[in-house]
Design goal:
Blueprint (H helix, E strand, L loop, with lengths): L13 H9 L5 H6 L12 H11 L3 H4 L14 H7 L4 H7 L5 H26 L13 H9 L8 H50 L2 H22 L5 H4 L6 H8 L4 H18 L5 H26 L4 H26 L3 H23 L7 H29 L1
Helix pairs in contact: 1-3, 1-17, 7-15, 7-16, 9-10, 9-14, 9-15, 9-16, 9-17, 10-13, 10-17, 13-14, 15-16
Length: 399
């Protein structure tokens, strides 16, 4: 029977091997970063930042059409914020309208509503209603059939004026509740990232190298296991390659609660360290508190995934929107005439996109950049490893 050795340290993946080399004290670049002339040990140096970004391919997820994320969100840096708030954003956003996945999702309903409105206008024109002139594109037999149909009714605009406030409130509440779920998910993932960093930092200072390496491995696997559960299309074998051994991967794959198994491994590592006297009861309790906080954050993510906004709320908004959009041509027909289909298409676009945004961000884990957050955790651990080595060297020199 295969057993897992928590202190097994496999070779790191090729994506982070060069960063591991940069973190070695024997690396000339590392010695330069640790010199007193360097403004900081960490990535205040632009060359180290560029190396990190190249090795982890931060932008590859945006350009990769096979990225499992449906809406490939971005981890912003300063240059992204500058572009985000520049004066040309309105033109850029307008020109990219039909590249938006949200817009493409609502186009079938928009075209259906516009086509329905066009049919109403054609029928009303051949019946001589509202001063519309019939088109000569249809054969005479079709025109005769259209004249035999019941007259196109006209609805009062007051009906839509009285109900528009209710529709706006429903859409606003829907969007706010979905954004709240998105924000909660992002904060929870941020807590996971920081707690993993805290746990590894404590392990580097309190445990021996093999135990600290095991803490690094299984703490990163917590995020990878969570990624594979939250993200559609993510595979554990691919994400964990080079981080854990095949035997460990096989046993982990048999677990129903994979993130919980990784947290259990972390608790066992702490217990082993405490048994041999490396951790006193206070430090052991503090590290167990970090593991417990990680478990709580993992549970919060799973709760968000399993609990949508109440379904009757989503269904009622969909029914309300469709009825409202397909009835508004009867009120616009006497006023807009042949422009009714274009007006209906514009109204449908503006309203349906709001609802579509709310539906998509309701499930935040297909939008949030989980792959980049996982890569950021790996980088944070590498930087903590280098910072710990540099700090020990500095204290040794002063001693």
């Amino acid at each position: 029977m295969n057993t897992i050795n928590p202190f097994n340290t496999p070779i790191v993946s090729a994506r982070v091997r060069r960063i591991d080399q940069l973190s070695s004290p024997r690396c000339p670049r590392a010695r330069q970063l640790s010199s007193p002339r360097c403004p900081g040990v960490r990535a205040t140096n632009a060359h180290f930042d560029d190396a990190v970004e190249r090795e982890l391919n931060w932008r590859a997820f945006i350009k990769d059409p096979e990225c499992p994320s449906t809406y490939k969100d971005v981890v912003f840096r300063q240059r992204d914020w500058e572009r985000h708030r520049d004066g040309a954003r309105w033109i850029r956003h307008l020109l990219s309208t039909f590249q938006s996945t949200v817009v493409r999702n609502v186009l079938p309903v928009i075209f259906t509503a516009a086509g329905f409105s066009f049919v109403l206008v054609v029928v009303a024109a051949h019946q001589g209603l509202h001063g519309l002139q019939a088109t000569e594109l249809l054969p005479a037999s079709c025109s005769g059939v259209l004249r035999l149909l019941p007259p196109v009714p006209v609805m009062s605009m007051y009906l839509f004026t009285l109900t528009s406030f209710a529709l706006s409130l429903l859409l606003a509440f829907r969007l706010n509740s979905s954004y709240s779920r998105w924000y909660d998910a992002r904060k929870t993932l941020g807590r996971i990232q920081y707690k993993i960093g805290d746990l590894y930092r404590c392990a580097l200072t309190m445990l021996n190298p093999s135990e600290a390496s095991a803490v690094h491995k299984w703490s990163v696997m917590v995020m990878i296991s969570l990624l594979c559960q939250l993200r559609k299309g993510a595979e554990l074998v691919v994400e964990a390659r080079g981080l854990i051994t095949d035997a460990e991967l096989r046993i982990l794959g048999q677990q129903e609660r994979k993130a919980g198994f990784c947290l259990t491994m972390l608790s066992h590592i702490m217990q082993i360290a405490a048994t041999r006297g490396a951790l006193d009861p206070i430090h052991h309790a503090s590290m167990e508190t970090l593991i417990r906080d990680l478990n709580e954050s993992v549970g919060s993510c799973k709760t968000l995934l399993k609990t949508p906004v109440p379904l009757f709320y989503t269904r009622h908004i969909s029914r309300f929107l469709l009825i409202w959009i397909f009835l508004v041509p009867f009120a616009l027909l006497p006023v807009m005439g042949w422009g009714t289909p274009f007006s209906v298409a514009l109204i449908a676009f503006l309203l349906l996109v709001i609802d579509e945004i709310g539906v998509q961000i309701e499930e935040p884990f297909q939008i949030l950049p989980l792959e980049k957050l996982t890569a950021a955790i790996k980088i944070d651990c590498m930087e903590l490893k280098y910072a710990s080595s540099a700090a020990k060297n500095l204290l040794a020199e002063k001693a």
